[in-house]
Amino acid sequence: MKSDVAIIGAGPGGLAAAMLLGHAGLKVTLLERQSVVGGRTSPIEANGFRFDTGPTFFLYPRVLEDIYAQVGRNLFEEVKMTQLDPLYRLVFGAGGQLDATSDLPRMEREIAKISPTDAGAFQKYIDNNRVKLKKFRPILEKPFSGVLDYLDPQVIASAMHLRPWRSLGQELESYFSDPRMVIAFSFQSKYLGMSPFKCPSLFSILAFLEYEHGVWHPEGGCSAVTANMAEVCRDLGVEILLDEEVQSLEFEGKRPTSLTTKNRNLEFDQLVINADFARAMENLVPDHIRDKWNNETLEKKKYSCSTFMMYLGIEGSFPDVAHHTIYIAKDYQKNLREIEDLRVLSEDPSIYVQNASITDKSLAPQGHSTLYVLAPVTHTTENVDWETQTESFRQRCLTQLEKIGITNLRDRIRFEKIITPQDWDHGYQLYKGATFNLAHNLGQMLHRRPHNRFEDLDSVFLVGGGTHPGSGLPVIFESARISAKLMMKDRKRKRMAAVR
Q: Residues spanned by CATH 3.50.50.60 within the chain?
C-alpha cells in the first residue's frame, strides 16, 4: 500500500493539510491513533453530555474560511456558528467585572466602570493593532527557514510596529494605567501557554482579533468544525484511518519511506507530522539522525504551561453566567509565578469557565447543562504529585466557581471527567503535558521554531502548534497552509527535474 502523502495525526492542522493536498489531487492517507478525529479538538461525550476536549474559543475564522474556499466549500454554510456578545466576562479577584464586547462605544463604557481614565485608550489600542496585524500577516503566512528570511522587506517594515523588544505586558502598559485593564487585554497569552510578561508584544493582536473579528461558537462545539473538516477530506478522496497509532517509521538515511501501525504498513513519498512535535520525535525518529532537534535539545527547550480540566454535566443551568467567563486571581502576578517559575499549585488559581448550554442546547439532555472548567497549571514536575493532589485542587476550583456566580454546584453534578497534566502527558501524548507545545518566547519563534519543512529530515513537513507560526487554531490552520504550499513546490520541482 502506498500514498503520495501520509499524515500522522487528525488534529486541526492535519485535517487542514489533508483538505488542501487532497484537493490538489494527491493520494493522501491520514492516520489517527484515537477513535475520533480532532486531536485536542475532539469531543468528550457521555450520558448525553458533549464537551470540547480542548479549544472552545473559535477565533478569526478567516484562515479556515479561506482554506474551505480554496477547496470549493463554504465554512459558514457547512458549520452553523453563533457570534457571541459579550465575547466573554472577566471577573477580577482584585475587584470589578467587565463584559467584553466588540461594540466599541459599549466597551468604552464597560472600561469606564472600572477605570475611567483608560476608556479612551481602547480606540487607540484597536487602531494601532489593526495596523500591526496588517504588517504581521505576511510573517504569519510565510515559512521561516533561516535568518535570511528576516531580510524580507515586509519583515523589516513590520519591526517598528511589532516592537519585539517589549513584552506583551509592557506593550499594554503603554495604553492602560489600571493593572486590571492590562490583564483584560493580555490574558489571551494563555492561549499560548505563557505569561503576558514573558511573551513578546506582538501578541497584543490576540485580543484585537477577538474585538475585530468576533468570538464564535460552532453549534456542537469546536469539535463540530474538525468533524466537518473530516467529511470534506473524505469527499476530496482522503483516506482517514482511525484507531491507527503509528508505531514506527522506516528510514533510508534521513528520509522516512514507510510507517507501521498495528494493522498495516504504509509507504509514502512525503510525510506530514501533526502529532505533538517533541513526543513524535522521541517516539518515532531515532535520536542519532536528528542533528538539531535531538532528545537532549528537546529536554532543554522551554515549554508552555499545562491545564487542569474539569468537564461537568450539571442538573439544571446557570442562565446568569456568561458563555465564556474568566476569573483572574487577586494576585495575578503571583499566580503566573507559581505556574511558570515555582512550578507549584496556586491557592488562588485563575480559571476559565465555558457555560455553553446558554447558547447551544444540543450539548446536554433536557433540563441539564454543561460546564467546562480550565485552570492553567505547571506542566509535569516533581513539585506536583497529581495522584495525591488532584482532589484537593478539584475542590479549590469548585470554590473558585462560586466567585463567578456558580453556587450550590457540588450536589448538581451528574457527570464529571478530569484531565490533569499527567493525563495530557501519558494519555494524550503531549511532551511534559505542555498543552500549548513549545513556549512562544523570542528564542523559540520564527526560524527558531521547528521549521514547516522539517530541517532534520527529508520530505517531512510539520503542522500544528509545535511549528511556525505557533499555537492557537487560526495559526495552526496557517501552518497547514504553509506546509501544503511547500510540499506542492517540492513535488513540482521534482517533476521538472525528472523532465530534464
A: 2-56+221-301+437-499
Q: Residue 454 gets which letter from DSSP?
A: -
Return the CATH fold of 305-431: Guanine Nucleotide Dissociation Inhibitor; domain 2 (3.30.519)
Name the residue with cell 530534464: 500
What mean pLDDT value characterizes the chain? Answer: 93
* β-sheet bridge partners, residue 326: 90, 352
Confidence of residue 262 (pLDDT cuts 50, 70, 90): very high
Edge-to-edge strands, sheet with 81-83: 58-59, 215-218, 81-83
Task: Give the predicted TM-score (pTM) of the model.
Answer: 0.94
pLDDT per position as a tens digit, 116-141:
999 899 999 999 999 888 887 777 77
How remote is the C-alpha of 88 from its chain's centroid? 18
Closest to 298 in 3D by CA, of 480, 194, 437, 192: 437
For residue 381, give the 3-state DSSP assignment.
coil
DSSP H or E run through 427: none
Strand pairing of 324-328 and 88-92? parallel
Q: Residues of 247-266 as b/e, b for ≥16 C-beta within 10 angstroms?
A: eebeeeeeebebbebeeeeb
Output phi, psi for 453, to 5 deg.
-90, 100
What are 306's strand-pairing partners? 377
Output the pLDDT for position 82.
Answer: 97
| Separation of alpha carbons 46 and 368, rounded Å | 13
What does R_g of the chain's alpha carbons equal in angstroms?
A: 22
